[in-house]
Amino acid sequence: MKTLQVVGYKNSGKTTLTSRWICLLKNKGLSVAVLKHHGHGGQPAMPNPSTDTMQFFGSGADVSVVAGGGAVQILLNEEPEFAQLKVLAAIGKPDILLIEGYKKEQGEKVVLLRDAGDWESLSGLDGIQLVIGCPEITAVSSHIESAQNVEQLDSWLLDWIEKEDGNETV
Prior knowledge:
Distance between the termini: 9 Å
Shape: globular
Structural class: alpha/beta
Number of helices: 5
């Protein structure tokens, strides 16, 4: 499985790029999983309190799994470590695992920049494969000057997939 993190600060375009790449990869016949860090403080939105799942949680369940109609929802009452989250995300044995966020964790990364100040604080991250934005900066890795250059972005991703490195077993 190839694993790639898409990192940057709020409103840098992480979700837009990740969504675009999911569509691209699916159109190429690849299976894709996504792990996202909820960096907005507090818990992600939970199901309606009247659902069975939330009643189970209210009764003290640590994990609630609901399956039906071809989909599965897993809710945990405790946040696992990053490595365990990757295992959960990879449960369906995807070809590609895209990870939005988790910038301080180990792994190959695409860094989205809003401005040169972002580069000052993110340039020291481990595993940078591509930097997107801020044409005025100098990056040691590949650099695409604008997130609007979608053809370059897509081409870079497809080339990255063909490389032998970046494969990970979780």
